[in-house]
Amino acid sequence: MAVFNPQRLQVAGVVAFYMAAALIMVFVNKAVLNSSPDLPLLFLLLQLLIAVLLLHASAAFHSKIVIPKVDFEVAKKLVPVVSVNIIGLVFNTLCLRDIARGLVLPLTIAVSSVYSRSTPSRMVLLAAATVTLGFMLGVAPSSSLPATAIPSTLSLFYGVLSSLSIAFHAVLIKNSLPYCNNSTIELAWWTNAGSAIMIFPFAILHGELSSLYVLAQSDAWNWTVFLWGSIVTGVFGFLLCVAGLLSIKVTSPITHMFSSAARSVLQTALGVWIFEDILTSNRAASIAVILGGTM
């Protein structure tokens, strides 16, 4: 007779919640951005602000959800995790994402080992190497793809920076939770509010507010698509933020990245089915290898 293990059930539930939220977020973002103006920083800023509003709304209806008080001492301690989060988001929009995903696992293991002063097991290293190989197979040149799909040197460079930021962010989350009373909700509030404050001046300097004003004066622009797109992605962005923090809290940064690798396989499969993305022989081999390494 199998022994009921509530801790394993909790881990399975949190990982499933994270993967579902991440998949929905990716496809909602893709659908909205395809029909919205090119205002990436403003779009991200609205998502962050909506997440903060949802946290306050949740606290108003549920006594167990506590919004932290503004404490500048705590804010100073959380500057690294918020800063790395913003850097990762920016580079993630500029890079070839499959390269970034492939490098996240080994870099997370390296950063986690340095922080904890521990050595990962051979099985963890073997699994990570297998998953990384799978991602590299997916971005290898293929005759099925046009020449414009071949990654540039700059996109590869941004991919390295993006994956390094994500690796540091995952480890910093684990180390930042004690500053927030070990509460993922409090850390989610600090992360979203802090990121919104940091990204606001860049949205202005990038000229996106003035671009939005010009678009608002145009009769051809359908502002309802942008508004509802921001609200929908803001809601799912909020769920993804909480799910990611919970995943790292109940498991570890390395385990969380393995979950992310498995999610990327599902994402590719759903992309082929829903958006009719191209499935080359390289990408099919990539999926098989990533699944093997993750399992």
Summarize the structure.
The protein is mainly alpha-helical. It is built from eleven helices and no strands.
List keywords for this structure.
0% strand, mainly alpha, 295 residues
Poorly predicted parts: none
In terms of structural class, how would the helical and strand content be classed? mainly alpha
Fraction of residues in H or I helices: over 70%
Q: Number of DSSP helices? A: 11
Range of strand content: under 5%
Main sheet overview: none
Tally of structural domains: 1
Question: Roughly how many Å apart are the termini?
Answer: 24 Å
Order of helices and strands: HHHHHHHHHHH
Shape descriptor:
globular
Please state the average pLDDT score: 80
How many β-strand stretches? 0
Radius of gyration: 20 Å
What can you tell me about this protein's structure?
By secondary structure, this protein is mainly α. It has one domain (about 10-140, about 150-295). It has eleven helices and no strands. It has helices spanning about 5-35, 40-60, 70-95, 95-115, 120-140, 155-175, 185-205, 210-215, 225-250, 255-275, 280-295. This is Sugar phosphate transporter domain-containing protein. Keywords: Membrane, Transmembrane, Transmembrane helix.
